[in-house]
Amino acid sequence: MPLLIPELIRKKRDGESLESDEIREFLTGVTTGEVPDYQISAMLMAVYLRGLDDAELTAWADAMLHSGDVLDLSRIDRAKVDKHSTGGVGDKISLPLAPAVAACGLAVPMVSGRGLGHTGGTLDKLESIPGFRVDLDVETFARIVDRVGACIIGQTERIAPADGVLYALRDVTATVESIPLIASSIMSKKLAEGTDGLVLDCKVGTGAFMKTRERAADLARALLAIGRAAGKSVTAVLTAMDDPIGDRVGNALEVEESIAVLHGEGPADTRELTVRLGAEMLLCVDACETPEEGAERLAAVLDDGSALEIFRRMVEAQGGDPRVVDDPRGILPQAAGRTAVPAAASGYVAAIAADEIGTAALLLGAGRRRKEDRLDPAVGIEIARRSGDAVRAGEPIAYLIHNGHGAEEASARVRAAYDIRDRPPAVSSRILEIMR
Ligand code: URA
């Protein structure tokens, strides 16, 4: 029977609920190409305006998930767990986190994305390690996860293909910022990994998709509802994304910072996020009894070198140069220029606007404006003064690591990002709330 697509669009437009089989048929038509772009676009706008109720949301996400393959990692007998972040400036946490959780005895099969905007995504960061490959087939992926404990690859075309179609149309029809569409998009890809547990890092603040805590909590609730309906153990963590994470923004620079964390060093916030998110990953598959116990185990594997060792083996298994672990600067691409950005005033750094820092990194070439753009792995920003630090006018607040492009405009952006005041701000944890 031909699908009565206009009737489905009308139902959603008028605020009625769609049945599960109507959603499934619609999204099957999206995947096969039977439903044309103009009808998909109209449906997306109807969903954007009317939302989806709980039953519709879980049916929509499930249909997107089953538009493609679900990985079969049943040969791995350890508990399998992953983390997803809604994204932020300087968010390199997956790099130290995956090997650290693997060092605690779990398997971390991570299918990750590329960045659009500010800086690259996890894949782009890893690819700044010479030789590192993220385009492995599923068989090789499963073998590395089994042998090493962690492997990070890119999404294949067979994972949630409906999302590829919907996302491209959302991007050009002003329907990206819809909580049910974002939640089903994220979860359709994450559930396809076939893990037992999933921790969702929902970012809140100037440098995040969700600018307010209320919106971030709404997104977290939608993500949790989809995960639970799929029978997974899921936890959402709301984390602050006002200042950039850590002190490096840019692809190779973020790898360098991640390696420092794996040596038991690195900025306190990058380490804290690694430890706390890792603890929730252990907890959600019952690999520890309390978050405190999980955090102690994470801290121990960062300090005793065992997480670093797994990272070394993961890099090697994925074709990268493992010497990066001992000599990051000797192996990672280095930019030609390092230019200080001077403070405009004396006082204390009260806040650093992550979105401005992200734009500065983009201007230097660390990110993409369009999907087909090439990024420069070596460039980015080194943050020299962080929130809470004292600074005198004219002293460096940050350094631009560049190859000659965009430095002038980036410098102005970095200066604009810094809010310098007379008194030091109260510095608090990035962890705002845990929703289990
Ligand atoms: N990330 C996704 O994967 N999908 C969205 O819709 C938004 C962010």
The oligomeric status of these chains comes to single chain
- Quickly name the level 1 CATH class of the largest domain: Alpha Beta
Number of helices: 17
Q: Spans of 5+ residues with little confidence (pLDDT < 50)?
A: none
CATH architecture group name of the largest domain = 3-Layer(aba) Sandwich
Main β sheet profile: 4 strands, mixed
Topology order in helix (H) and strand (E) letters:
HHHHEHEHHEHHEHEEHHHHHEEHEEEHEE
Helix content: 40-55%
- Please provide the count of β strands: 13
Mean pLDDT: 95
Cα distance, first to last residue? 43 Å
Q: Roughly what fraction of the amino acids lie in strands?
A: 15-25%
Could you say what the CATH topology of the largest domain is called? Pyrimidine Nucleoside Phosphorylase, Chain A, domain 2
Across the major sheet, the strand order is: 1-4-5-13
Hetero compounds: uracil
Gyration radius over CA: 22 Å
The tally of structural domains comes to: 3
Structural class: alpha/beta
- Could you name the CATH homologous superfamily of the largest domain? Nucleoside phosphorylase/phosphoribosyltransferase catalytic domain
* Morphology call: globular
In short:
This protein has 436 residues and is an alpha/beta fold.
Q: What attributes does this structure have?
A:
Pyrimidine Nucleoside Phosphorylase, Chain A, domain 2; 4-stranded antiparallel sheet; 13 strands; Transferase, Pyrimidine Nucleoside Phosphorylase, Chain A, domain 3; 436 residues; binds uracil; 3 domains
Structure write-up:
- The protein has about 425 residues and is α/β, with parallel strands linked by helices.
- The chain is built from 17 helices and 13 strands.
- The strands form 4 sheets. A 4-stranded mixed beta sheet has the order 1-4-5-13, sandwiched between helices.
- The protein folds into 3 domains: about 5-50, Transferase, Pyrimidine Nucleoside Phosphorylase, Chain A, domain 3 (Up-down Bundle), CATH 1.20.970.10; about 80-330, Pyrimidine Nucleoside Phosphorylase, Chain A, domain 2 (3-Layer(aba) Sandwich), CATH 3.40.1030; about 335-420, Alpha-Beta Complex (Aldehyde Oxidoreductase, domain 3).
- The protein has helices at about 5-15, 20-30, 35-50, 55-65, 95-105, 120-125, 140-150, 160-170, 180-190, 215-230, 250-260, 270-285, 290-305, 305-315, 330, 355-365, 405-415; strands at about 80-85, 110, 150-155, 195-205, 235-240, 250, 335-340, 345-350, 380-385, 390, 395-400, 420, 430-435.
- The longest helix has 17 residues, at about 215-230.
- Uracil binds near residues 181, 182, 185 and 186.
